[in-house]
UniProtKB/TrEMBL annotation:
Keywords from the UniProt entry: Membrane, Transmembrane, Transmembrane helix
Protein name as annotated: DMT family protein
KW Cytoplasm (keyword) present: no
Top-level taxonomy: Bacteria, Pseudomonadati, Bacteroidota, Cytophagia, Cytophagales
PANTHER family linked to this entry: DMT FAMILY PROTEIN
InterPro entries to which the protein is assigned, alphabetical: DUF486
TM stretches of this protein: 36-55, 76-96, 102-120
Length: 122
């Protein structure tokens, strides 16, 4: 149960992180947003990133083996990185129609899966 909760919170966290980091590139299509200055865009992104932390911190607290969770620190980090890349890939394909998956992306994804396998191998 803690493993699924941790993974769910990490997915939510990384969804907000992706919006905070890359959403402004898509939001620039909105006329009112495009008129904003860099400081305004940074503050909006920072506000979105607050929600990232609202999910990331509990995910790490619940998931960390030192707190009774199922994952070591290294496992948590690798899990977070893989989730980040999956969320980003989905975001880029949905939000930016110019992005496409290529063979090298799929090969890289296979290597990420292998990395997770070896990190979690006892």
């Amino acid at each position: 149960m803690k493993a699924l909760l941790t993974i769910g919170l990490l997915v939510l966290s990384n969804t907000f992180m992706t919006l905070a980091w890359y959403g402004h590139l898509k939001f620039a299509e909105w006329k009112w947003f495009n008129k904003l200055g860099l400081v305004s865009i940074i503050l909006i992104s920072w506000g979105i990133a607050l929600f990232e932390y609202c999910f990331q911190v509990p995910a790490n607290k619940i998931g960390f083996s030192g707190n009774g969770g199922p994952f070591s620190l290294v496992q948590l980090k690798v899990l977070q990185e893989v989730i980040t890349l999956i969320v980003f890939m989905i975001f880029s394909l949905i939000a930016f129609k110019t992005e496409t998956l290529k063979l090298n992306h799929l090969i890289g994804a296979v290597f990420l899966i292998l990395a997770v396998y070896f990190i979690f191998k006892k």
